[in-house]
Amino acid sequence: DVAMTVPVIRTLVQQNSDVKVTVVSRPFFKPFFEGIDRVDFFSVDLQKRHKGFVGIYRLFQDLKKLQIDAVADFHNVLRSKILRTFFKLSGTKTAFTNKGRAEKKALTRTKNKVLKPLKTMIERHIDTLAGLGFTVDVSKSNFSEKSALPEEILAVTSEKSNHKWIGIAPFAQYQTKVYPADLMKDVIKKLAEKPSHKIFLFGGKNELQQLINLKQHLANVSLIPEHFNFKQELQFIPHLDLMLSMDSGNAHIAAMYGVPVITLWGNTHPFAGFVPFNQPLQNSFIPDLEKYPLLPTSVYGNKIIPGYEDVMRTILPEKVVDKINDLL
Predict the structure, then answer these.
(1) How confident is the model at residue 118 (pLDDT cuts 50, 70, 90)?
(2) CA distances (Å), 257 to each of 75, 143, 171, 254, in order?
(3) pLDDT tens digit string along 71-110?
(4) Which of 170, 266, 284, 302 has the smallest number of CB atoms closer than 10 Å to its CB?
(5) Residue 71: which region, alpha, beta or left (left: phi > 0; alpha: psi -120 to 50)?
């Protein structure tokens, strides 16, 4: 969710020279916005100072000191609704993102399903800013310049030279969105057959053993969590030639840096509005809808129905590999 706000906020300041933005979010996400001119970051302390209803009021008081002229609530959940209400009552102009919950329910229900593309979250955030009087055209957005890789990263990756750097993020929050391990191993093995390919597997440190299994002792495959912290990952990702990801955060992080992204979808669907920024729909692989007509079963992948456990097996590894080679 946070990664999908980055292209919108970056474009807002690029196309409106009189605008300064303060992003209000958890401290973890601060690196997403570093290097964007006229964008500051305010870290919310949800454990102490800004915890609970009283904490939200403290947050409002803290932000009022910044002389905020307008509030765009991109999250539109209980906490942010309360915060924006404090601003509204104080006379500050506010707007919020309509997440299209009714449309998403129609998309994911099993009966009378309406299978059609919904507005992307990017488009919904643009509508929110329009409600505050700002015009944003992400088709004319400029990506930030890639910074040179520091020595500690190059010590792991070596110089790029003529190699193609392929990132693969094989995990997701819910198992319904994870490509089966045996098929992913096949994809990795086929990609690794080309000496010009260098493959980097992404995941959390708690997923390291699973990544080791996927690596298969292949010499041109490296494990990112074995070497990099999160900030180093963000420095490294812009230098990838392509990212292969599930319907998960790494897809959106790569896209916000302008990296081509291929996504594999399970019980979710790109029509729900979570296609990574600036990526064509043909880069999204979905299961066989004739065999599994009730897809998608949920927006986030937290719901599964009996008989739909193996939908991603209808996405063939060779087709994924062919698509990657075509894009490279």
Answers:
(1) very high
(2) 22, 6, 20, 5
(3) 999 999 999 999 999 999 999 999 999 999 999 999 999 9
(4) 302
(5) beta
Taking a C-beta distance cutoff of 8 angstroms, is the pair 268, 177 a contact? yes
* Cα–Cα nearest to 137, from 4, 12, 37: 12
HSE-up of residue 90 (Cα within 13 Å, Cβ side): 19
Longest CA pairwise span in the chain (Å): 62
Cβ neighbors of 21 (< 8 A, separation 6 or more) are: 9, 12, 13, 38, 39, 40
The pLDDT-based confidence of 306 (bands split at 50, 70, 90) is: very high
CA-CA distance, 149 to 26, in Å (whole number)?
26
Sign of the C-alpha dihedral computed for residues 44, 48, 49 and 54 taken in this order? positive
Q: Are 225 and 248 in contact (CB under 8 A)?
A: no
pLDDT given for residue 262 in this prediction: 98
Which residues touch 209 (CB under 8 Å, ≥6 apart)? none
pLDDT bucket at 145, cuts 50 / 70 / 90: confident
Residue linked to tokens 């970051």 = 41
Three-class SS of residue 164? strand
- The answer to whether the beta carbons of residues 86 and 56 sit under 8 Å apart is yes
CA distance 275 to 3: 12
User: Please, are residues 302 and 296 in contact by the beta-carbon 8 Å criterion?
Assistant: no
Virtual CA dihedral for 89, 130, 29, 107, nearest 10 degrees? 100
Task: From 167, 145, 164, 157, select the one nearest 251 (Cα to Cα).
Answer: 167
Ramachandran bin of 40, using left for φ above 0, alpha for ψ from -120 to 50, beta for the remaining angles: beta
Global pTM reads: 0.94
Q: How many CB atoms lie within 10 A of CB 104?
A: 18
Taking the C-alpha atoms of residue 203 and residue 248, their distance in angstroms, rounded to an integer, is: 11
Q: Which residues pair with 46 in a beta bridge?
A: none
